[in-house]
Amino acid sequence: QVQVAESGGGLVQAGGSLRLSCTGSELVFGGLAVAWFRQVPGKEREGVSCTTWSGRSEYYLDSGEGRFTNSRDNAERTLYLQMNNLKPGDTAMYYCAAGPYGSCSSSRDDYIYWGQGAQVTVSS
């Protein structure tokens, strides 16, 4: 069974940093693509980044500008999203999602395992 959970959200001032963690029973060694999405109430879920079991990373935010970085800890079976120089526009619920095909995609329809979300709030 695949279970996904996020942690590391919180309140941070603009310019600050957070590192989100995503853990799951089949992460890292399960052959899944793991993606980060974010969503603001009333808006569509937006792809943030994705990483594959083979180590490939993709970044989807036009506003990211290199501020977000994927990483992993194989021993802990954990994926990380390092978010630097956060801006108020980054405020959202961030979700970790896993897809069964091992290929990255920015489409939420390609992912079937979802965490409950971690709230990130960036104040001015």
Overview of this protein structure:
Helices cover 0% and strands 48% of the residues. It contains no helices and eleven strands. Strands 2, 4, 5, 6, 9, 10 and 11 form a seven-stranded mixed β-sheet that branches. The protein is globular, with a radius of gyration of 13 Å. The mean pLDDT is 91.
Task: For this entry, give a set of tags.
globular, 7-stranded mixed β-sheet, 124 residues, mainly beta, 4-stranded antiparallel β-sheet
Write the layout of secondary structure elements.
Layout: E1 4-7, E2 10-13, E3 18-24, E4 33-39, E5 46-51, E6 57-59, E7 68-73, E8 78-83, E9 92-99, E10 113-114, E11 118-123
Parallel strand pairs: 2-11
Antiparallel strand pairs: 1-3, 3-8, 4-5, 4-9, 5-6, 7-8, 9-10, 9-11
Structure summarized in a few sentences:
With 124 residues, the chain is mostly beta strands. It contains no helices and eleven strands.
Helix content: under 10%
Query: Which term fits the overall shape?
Result: globular
Give the low-pLDDT segments: none
How many beta-strand elements?
11
Number of helices: 0
| Multimerization status | single chain
Using only CA atoms, what is the Rg? 13 Å
Secondary-structure element order, as H and E?
EEEEEEEEEEE
Q: Structural class, judged by helices and strands?
A: mainly beta
Percent of residues in β-strands: over 45%
Mean pLDDT: 91
